[in-house]
Structure formats: C-alpha cells, structure tokens
Amino acid sequence: IQLVESGGGTVQAGGSLTLSCTASGYTGCSTHMAWFRQSPGKAREGIASNVGYPGDTIYSDSVKGRFTISRDHAKNTLTLQMNSLKPEDTAIYYCAAGTPTSDYRLREVGYHIWGQGTQVTVTV
C-alpha cells in the first residue's frame, strides 16, 4: 500500500484547507489511518486518527474543534478538513496507516506506512 497526500498550500490565518490522502490499495476498516504533522525543529505530532466504520475518531488538543478527519472506505481515501487555521498550524502534513493499540493512536510508533507529506503554510 502506498499513500499519497494532496491539497496543501498557503492560506491566511482564519482560512480553511482540505487535505486528501489516497491509498493505492485496500486499507480495510480495521486499519487505522491518521494525520500527523511536523514543523521545523519539532517532533512529528499526531493530530487525528480514524478507524472502523462509520469511524471512531480522535484528535489532539491542538486541533480539536477545528479539524475534521473523515474516511471513504469505498475510495480508499482519508480527508482532513482544516478550519480556523492558525500560523502555528504551519507544518508538513503526513498521512499514515497502521494498527496501533488504543494508547498509540496518535503516536508515530503505531504506524508503518507513510505518505511523502504535503506542506501547509498559514500566514498572518
């Protein structure tokens, strides 16, 4: 399975962007799919994870209430709707797939397939 992200770009603070991740193969309902991000000089941060159908989702506190993760099992796609963007949301955003335990759903160690990343820049 390969993951390819798209939809990154530059947006003003307060604006919105939608990221997409397309999987080349079938991921399955039991496979967790998640979004991570990494800013320069910082560790990669798990921000949203989805598993199952219709989908059990969790979010990091940093994006809760602003970002929405969704998944289309028929199209093997994962989407991240980002609203009310802030300059601190500037990062490379990565899509990931894996089978983490519940405590590791937003931890890198739980995921073994990664996309190449897409840049999101939020300007003031």
The number of distinct helices, counting runs of at least 4 residues, comes to 0
Based on CA inertia axes, which overall geometry fits? globular
Helical content class: under 10%
- Count the strands? 11
Sheet of most strands: 7 strands, mixed
Q: Roughly how many Å apart are the termini?
A: 37 Å
Strand content: over 45%
Summarize the helix and strand pattern as letters.
Answer: EEEEEEEEEEE
Given helix and strand content, the structural type is mainly beta
Radius of gyration: 13 Å
Describe the structure concisely:
The protein contains no helices and eleven strands. The protein is mostly beta strands.
What does this structure look like?
- The chain has 124 residues and is mainly beta.
- The protein contains no helices and 11 strands.
- It has strands spanning 3-6, 9-12, 17-23, 32-38, 45-51, 56-59, 67-72, 77-82, 91-98, 111-114, 118-123.
- Strands 2, 4, 5, 6, 9, 10 and 11 form a 7-stranded mixed beta sheet that branches.
- A hairpin with a 6-residue loop joins strand 4 (32-38) and strand 5.
- The protein is globular and about 40 Å long.
- The termini are far apart.
Jot down its keywords.
single chain, 124 residues, mainly beta, seven-stranded mixed beta sheet, four-stranded antiparallel beta sheet, 11 strands, 51% strand
